[in-house]
Amino acid sequence: IITDENDQRPEFDRTHFSLNISEGTAANTTLMRFNAVDRDEPETNNSRISYRLANGSSVFEIDSSSGDLRLISKLDREEREKYEFDVVAFDHGVPRSLSSTVRCVVHL
């Protein structure tokens, strides 16, 4: 029996993300979907990807399974006109998980 070694890290389909949204965008609005691919054996923990915000956020949240980025609070452009954060895609490989990080910039 040959088992897959977790030797491939998830890769995002872009090197960075930038989006423009209105300060009037309602809370709980899905803004975009992050997508990463892991080239390890399909349908194994080595290729199953989850997502998280690198430093957390009180303004945005990411669905760990789908990669959907949602706005979770009201925005005020006079208070802040740009948000920058990192999104991490990680696999569930054993004995260790591999990950990749991508920068996202949200402009109001």
Q: Sketch the topology as an H/E string, one letter per element.
A: EEEEEEEEE
Tell how many strands the DSSP assignment holds. 9
| Estimated helix fraction | under 10%
Number of helices: 0
Largest sheet: 4 strands, mixed
Across the major sheet, the strand order is: 2-9-8-5
Structural class: mainly beta
State the low-pLDDT regions, or none.
none
Q: What is the strand content?
A: 35-45%
What gap, in angstroms, lies between the N and C termini? 54 Å
What spatial form do the alpha-carbon principal axes imply? elongated
The gyration radius over C-alpha positions equals 16 Å
Overall pLDDT metric: 94
Question: Would you write up a description of this structure?
Answer:
There is one protein chain. Strand 6 and strand 7 form a beta hairpin. The chain contains no helices and nine strands. It is mostly beta strands and 108 residues long. Helices cover 0% and strands 41% of the residues.
